[in-house]
Amino acid sequence: MSSALTDLAPHPIVQAPMAGGVSVPQLAAAVSEAGGLGFLAAGYKTTDGMYQEIKQIRGLTARPFGVNLFMPQPEHADPAAVDVYAHQLAGEAAWYETELGDPDSGRDDSYETKLAVLVDNPVPVVSFHFGVPTPEALESLRRVGTRTFVTATTAEEALAVERAGADAVIAQGVEAGGHQGTHRDLPETEGAGIGLLSLLAQIRETVALPVVAAGGLMRGSQIAAVLAAGASAAQLGTAFLATPESGAAAVHKQALTDPLYARTELTRAFSGRPARGLVNRFLREHGPYAPAAYPEIHHLTSPLRKAAAKAGDAQGMALWAGQGHWMARGLPAGQLVATLAAELDDARTALSAGKGELR
Predict the structure, then answer these.
(1) Which of 135, 137, 181, 224 can bridge 151 by disulfide, Cβ–Cβ 3.0-4.6 Å?
(2) What percent of the chain shows pLDDT beyond 90?
(3) What is the pLDDT of residues 212-249, one digit of tens each?
(4) Which residues pair with 239 in a beta bridge?
(5) 244-266 b/e (C-beta count within 10 Å ≥ 16 → b)
(6) How far apart are CA 359 and CA 345, in angstroms?
(7) Residue range 317-343: mean pLDDT, rounded
(8) b/e 115-136 (16+ beta carbons within 10 angstroms → b)
C-alpha cells in the first residue's frame, strides 16, 4: 500500500461503507480487528445516530476505522416526474399496506452537522460519496488528524478530488454494487460507466493520489490484480454484505447466491440515482420509468422497501449487489479478511514464481 495508507491497516483490504443499516459497528470493528479497514456508513442516519455508532465501534476496537458521508445534492428533479412515479407506485403501497414517503423529506443528509461532529470528535478516516467536499472541509479534517478519501467514477472526477486536497481517491468501477458515486447525476451520460481496470489506469495517469480500487472485487486474486495495476488498496462491499456481522436482511444475503437472481442492473427504481442491484420484480417493473430524482425517489420508496423487508419479500427490496455477487461467502468478517489476505498472498507468490495465473 501507499505510505499514505499503510499505517491504517496491515492488509490492503477496505470494507466498503454500505448505507441502509448494512455497515453496522460490529461489521466494521470485525474487519478492522482482522487487519482490514472497516467503515461505518453515516448516509441516511441522523447525526446522533452516526455519533452513537462511532462510540459503539470505539468500544469494540482500538484499530483505525472510517466513516462515510453523503454529499448534499443539488435540486434538479422535475416535481411533475416525481408525481407521475408516485402515481405508478400506488399499487405497491396498497400491496404492502403502507403509505408512500414524502419526497421532500430533505436533500442534504445533515451533511454540515455530521461534518462538525467529525471535526469535534475525530476519526481516523472520513470518505465522501456523490461529490467533492470543499477544500476548507477537507482541511478542517486534516487539522484534526483525519485522512480523507473521495469517490470518483471518471478521471475528471479524480482530478477534482486531487485539486480539493483529499488524501486518496476511491476509483469506483461500474461493476460496483449500490449507488454509483458520480459527482453529478446526468441522465445523458447514463450507461457510460467505466469498468474498474480501465478506470484505474485512467486515474493513475491523471492524478498522483493513492487510489483505492472498488467494483466487483470478491477474491484475493482480484485484489492482487488491482494492486498490480497500481491501486494502493481494494474496497469490497458485496463480499462483506454476506457476512454474519452485516446488518443486511437475511433474504438479501440469501439472494446473493440464489440462482433466481442471475444478474444485476443499474437502476433508478429505488432512489432516483443509478445504483446496481439484483434484478427483481420491483426493478423490472419500475426501473424503466423511474426519473432522475435523488433523493426524492429514495424518500418516496423508503416505506415500500421497509415493508417488503419486514415481510421478507425480496422481490420488493433494493437488493444492492455488485457484479460478483454469486461469489459471496457467508464467512465471519474476520475470517473473510484472513481468507482474502491468504488468497492475495497466494496470487502474489504465483506471479513471482512466473506461473502468471491468478486463481
Answers:
(1) 181
(2) 89
(3) 999 999 999 999 999 999 999 999 999 999 999 999 99
(4) none
(5) ebbbbbebbbbbbeeeebeebeb
(6) 11
(7) 98
(8) bebbeeeebbbbbbbbbbbeee
